[in-house]
C-alpha cells in the first residue's frame, strides 16, 4: 500500500477500510451506538472533519460530521499530530484544554472497549502515514 497524508482523503479511505475489515470491531459494534465527530483545525490542507458512526452492529468511518452526533472532539493540527504519532499522551490535551470535548460523556465511557479496538485498526494505517 502507498504512503498517505495524515487526514487526507487517501488516509481517510485507508482508515475506513481498516475499520470495515476488523471483525473484532464490527462485532463490538453490536454492543454500542455512538456517533463521534472529530474536527481538526489548521491542517496544511485546510480544516478536516470526519466521523465514526457505530450503530446496528456496524462501525464505519467517513468524511463530515456524524449523524446522529453524540460526541465531538475539536483540536488543532499540532495536537492531532502529536497524539497520532505518540509524541503526546492522549489524555494530556484533554487535561490542558487542547482538545475540546462536547457531548455525551457517559456514552463515550461506555464505548471504551470499542475505542481500544479502534486504536488497533488505526495501527496498520499509522505505519503508512506522513504527518507533514
Which structural class do you get from the secondary structure elements?
alpha/beta
Q: Characterize the main sheet.
A: 5 strands, mixed
Rounded mean pLDDT is 94
Please trace the helix and strand order, writing H or E for each element. Answer: EHHEEEEHHEHHE
Topology, pairings included?
Elements lengths: L3 E2 L3 H12 L2 H6 L5 E8 L6 E8 L2 E6 L7 E6 H9 L6 H4 L3 E5 L1 H6 L1 H15 L2 E2 L2
Parallel strand pairs: 1-7, 2-5
Antiparallel strand pairs: 2-3, 3-4, 5-6
Helix pairs in contact: 1-6
Structure report:
There is one protein chain. It is built from six helices and seven strands; from the N terminus they run βααββββααβααβ. With 132 residues, it is of the alpha/beta class. The strands form two sheets. A five-stranded mixed sheet has the order 4-3-2-5-6. A two-stranded parallel sheet has the order 1-7. Helix 1 (9-20) packs across helix 6. The longest helix has 15 residues, at 112-126. The chain is globular and about 35 Å long. The model has no long low-confidence stretch (mean pLDDT 94).
Amino acid at each position: 500500500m502507498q504512503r498517505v497524508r495524515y487526514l487526507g482523503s487517501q488516509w481517510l479511505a485507508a482508515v475506513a477500510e481498516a475499520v470495515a475489515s476488523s471483525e473484532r470491531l464490527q462485532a463490538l459494534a453490536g454492543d454500542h451506538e455512538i456517533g463521534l465527530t472529530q474536527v481538526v483545525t489548521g491542517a496544511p490542507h485546510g480544516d478536516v472533519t470526519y466521523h465514526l458512526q457505530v450503530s446496528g452492529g456496524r462501525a464505519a468511518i467517513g468524511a463530515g460530521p456524524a449523524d446522529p452526533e453524540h460526541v465531538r472532539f475539536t483540536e488543532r493540527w499540532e495536537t492531532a499530530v502529536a497524539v497520532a504519532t505518540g509524541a503526546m499522551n492522549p489524555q494530556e490535551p484533554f487535561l490542558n484544554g487542547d482538545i475540546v470535548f462536547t457531548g455525551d460523556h457517559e456514552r463515550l465511557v461506555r464505548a471504551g472497549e470499542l475505542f481500544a479496538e479502534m486504536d488497533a485498526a488505526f495501527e496498520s494505517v499509522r505505519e503508512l502515514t506522513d504527518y507533514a
